[in-house]
Amino acid sequence: MAKTNDLLDPKNDYVFFRLFSEEPELLIDLINAVRADQPPITEITLLDARLTPERIQGKRLVLDLRGIDEQGRRYNIEIQVRRFPFWASRAMMYLARLYSEQLDAGNDYQEAQPVIGIHLLDFDLFKEEPGDQDNALWRFDTYDHQHSRSLGHIMELNIVELRKADRLGQLPERLSAWIAYFEHWNEDDVMNNLAHPPIQKARAKLRAMSADEQERYWAESRARALSDEVTMLNAARREGREEGREEGDKHARHQTALAMLQGGQLDVATIARYAGISESEVEELADGRAKH
């Protein structure tokens, strides 16, 4: 299988952000491919699409795309390459924040528009229950399935498990093409057989980015930062477990958070997410006020 080894990985969140923020028509096609059973959107206006050095090197390591379509609905689009605890809580928090920002801007509840999350995951999120291995596309919203009643699709989270979707196949042609792009971007024999025009445009964009020395620098910097964060978090967890093993679960979580605080390189929200405690508890630990 012929491979092009010098191409950047489109699943790198920096590459993903650059690709779709600079080519919004590709983002529209991706959104419509994921939500093929819904009326297609025709335009999207991105929010905060600037990439500053501070944002790229930020501690939180989050590069997501946020946008508004022609109907006023708001989107959060991102890619994740690794599974971490409380991922679902984080995803829903981001959607809730996207919704509440409309009220902060002076709108009343009646004017607030639905928010839609599209998260591409390069890992299997669901694998414990029967049938999990037969489905890679998920949609969660405010819907009562027992009585077939909806609150109006106020919040919707679409999840694509990329690896599982690639294994299963038999998906609509356009979505299958995007999945192949993310999973087989460096395999010429696969990519050459994808006739969907947006995929070929995305492929050309990836080649151009990969040939740019500055783009490679930032993409590789992001990859290193993610790797460093994983190493630091794993070390903190091990230290927290060792110190808190005989003191109970809450103590262990606090010890994990303390170890992360001592590292001095992670913010409160990240520590809270990985330690499994609230941000206020992390702040109390940082101030020495928590009882642990």
The largest pleated sheet is described as: 6 strands, mixed
Low-confidence stretches: 244-248
Alpha-carbon Rg, integer:
21 Å
On the 0-100 scale, what is the average pLDDT? 81
Strand tally: 8
**Overall 3D geometry?**
globular
Instruction: Going across the biggest sheet, name each strand in turn.
Output: 1-2-3-4-8-5
Give your account of this protein's structure.
Helix 10 packs antiparallel against helix 11 (268-275) and helix 10 crosses helix 12 (279-287). This protein folds into two domains: 13-196, no CATH class; 217-287, no CATH class. Strands 1-2-3-4-8-5 form a six-stranded mixed β-sheet, sandwiched between helices. The protein has helices at 13-22, 24-34, 53-56, 87-104, 162-168, 173-183, 188-191, 197-210, 213-244, 249-263, 268-275, 279-287, and strands at 44-47, 65-69, 74-80, 115-121, 137-141, 143-144, 149-150, 155-161. The chain has 292 residues and is an alpha/beta fold. The N and C termini lie far apart (55 Å). The chain contains twelve helices and eight strands. It is globular, with a radius of gyration of 21 Å. Helices cover 49% and strands 13% of the residues. This is PD-(D/E)XK nuclease family transposase. Pfam families: PDDEXK_2 (PF12784).
Nutshell version of this structure?
Helix content is 49%, strand content 13%.
